[in-house]
């Protein structure tokens, strides 16, 4: 049984695909999985690190209308042609699209070649690619119950609320901090630990706000606090040098490969509000301060974040209101009021769906083996 997973462009669209691939491996060990991704370095870096075979296509994103739109349309047509050749030679039983523009060529090729198609939507408000592809999909896996109303009429009977798939390594140890885990990062077990990141490429605005607040830390707070900070490649050297001016214990990295350990080491997470990130922190039951990326399509990160904010699972700061004092006042309050932090953790965990990948793969196998 051969299966294609079409995803990429960002880690938020890649990681659910990896979770589904792992689950296929568990439920159907003989299944052969092939990823179809973009030629972006982040796609190739992540998939190569995980050891899955892949084919990359020259597909590009496009918004609005400009000369780049024409280039992107040309790349799309080229990518569809390459994808048709791939599907005809690989003979997959199933193609699953994980949303966004990278999934379009493979699913269009699958439609032309008569392959069973499915899609998975991570966000509450679905993207244009999944809305377009939903007309051909035998199953539409959604992560929020509210998402149903945003798909075209006629999709309801094919829609399944599964949640957003989370990689197995992230939720195998979800019963709290394991003794000695922080020592993997050279940190102390008894200090309040922040995990700060802005997605696979980092977030300059978050990095700036964190650095603004460091200079205002009192000696007492510096002694109680330690930080794991993923900066992204662009800001790495500057942020690392800045931390060296202060007494607070820190681990500064351009990218965190062992994300499960970083999550599990943290008392509080400060991050963007991508759907995959939210799936991970809810499955793990982590309190968070969410800073949605303001340029996400349809402002979907803000929509996602509001779900956690409404139930009391997270604090929310809009990107426009983000500043050092705004961010650090929330951090200090949660450091000083552990009972509030614990309430947030419990409410976050109630939202988690650790069996999302299992549900998607089980239904996929049921349908194609029927």
Q: Briefly, what CATH class of the largest domain?
A: Alpha Beta
Sequence of secondary-structure elements: EHEHEHEHEHEEHEHHEHEHEHEHEHHH
Average of the residue pLDDT scores: 92
The helical percent reads 40-55%
Q: Can you list the strand order of the major beta sheet? A: 3-2-1-4-5-6-7
Number of strands: 13
Radius of gyration over C-alpha positions, nearest whole angstrom: 21 Å
Descriptive account of the structure:
This protein has 370 residues and is α/β, with parallel strands linked by helices. It has 2 domains: 2-166 and 354-369, Glycogen Phosphorylase B (Rossmann fold); 170-351, Rossmann fold (3-Layer(aba) Sandwich), CATH 3.40.50. 45% of the residues lie in helices and 16% in strands. It has 15 helices and 13 strands. It has helices at residues 11-27, 41-50, 67-90, 104-113, 128-133, 168-171, 204-214, 219-224, 236-243, 259-265, 275-284, 300-311, 324-336, 338-351, 356-369, and strands at 2-6, 32-38, 54-57, 94-97, 116-121, 139-142, 159-161, 192-196, 225-230, 249-253, 268-271, 287-290, 314-316. The strands form 2 sheets. A 7-stranded parallel sheet has the order 3-2-1-4-5-6-7, with helices on both faces. A 6-stranded parallel sheet has the order 10-9-8-11-12-13, with helices on both faces. Helix 1 packs across helix 15, helix 3 packs across helix 4 (104-113) and helix 7 (204-214) crosses helix 13. The longest helix has 24 residues, at 67-90. It is globular, with a radius of gyration of 21 Å. The two termini are 14 Å apart.
